[in-house]
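Work Package 3 (structural annotation) set out to generate three-dimensional models for the target panel prioritized at the project kickoff. During this period the team completed the workflow that converts sequence records into discrete structure tokens, so that structures can be stored uniformly alongside our sequence database. As a representative example, we reproduce one entry of 329 residues exactly as it appears in the project archive.
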Amino acid sequence: MKVWESRIFLVLAAITIVIANYQRHRDRFHLREQLVNGHKVTRNITQLQEEIIANLPPLRIPRLRHHRVTDWDPYFENADGQGINGSQHVALHLGATAFLDCRVAMLSGKKVMWLRRNTDWASLLTLGNTTHISDSRYSVSFQYPNNWRLAISGVRREDHGVYVCQVNTHPPRMLITNVTVLAPDIRIVDEARHELRDRYYKTGSGIDLTCVVRPSCPDSRVPYPVWRKNGETLLDHVNVYHINGSNEDVVTRLYIERAKKTDSGEYTCSVSQFSTTAVHIHVLNGEKQAAVYHDQWNAARTNYPVTFVTKFCAVFANIFLYLWQNYLL
């Protein structure tokens, strides 16, 4: 009986060892398979990364807007952050409020000033945030982040010229702005389109004046001009008509049917308060008719060449007419 028990024990022990070896072998096989698969996955990922990197566009380092590699001094730039080399040209409309920009990068505690410069003189307009000119139309304001803006309200014809934005470095850095003032061309002409400054009329005759306004730019529009006499509103017997002008001209006609001495005075034609032209009208009685003929002769000579003989004859005729009216009648 003991022999069988020993044999059974040995068989069970052998079976246990075989099963254990099989399990150990299987686990080792699975581990090796996982390592191989993991190596394949890692290799595939590495290849994928290499392919992605190879297909990427070249790396671009962005340009720093307010820094330069070799120059740390103040410099001027435009609204897009690009450096300005050279002068600027600005066109301002007559009567409007104008803004001149001066963008200074890397200011580093320096002062910004605006100057107006001519060939013979230069005047300080602003320094920092302070205005140094008595003309209240000028002012300066700081626009974040770096714009020192000069404002000019109610632009006049004489505001054209050279404006300088200057930084007090050594030597000074300057941004030059050339300013042009756009103003309409305005003229008072007679029936023959002769420009007038003085005009004589007989009492009872018709006064016919035309104001022609031509815009400074082909695409700009101007309002109809306003007529005044001696700076005041016209009387009721003075008629004003708006006429369609050629091209882009704006035409306004003033007409008085029967002129009186009280119609004498200065007649102005204005487009806003900044663009005005004037003519002096003289309405004379019958004993002063020589002046009327003299004025008509002056108008006629603007169209035709006049010789010395023609001038002499015209003067002689005026003198003869004056003597005839005042002494012989």
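Residues 242 and 252 are 5 Å apart (CA to CA).
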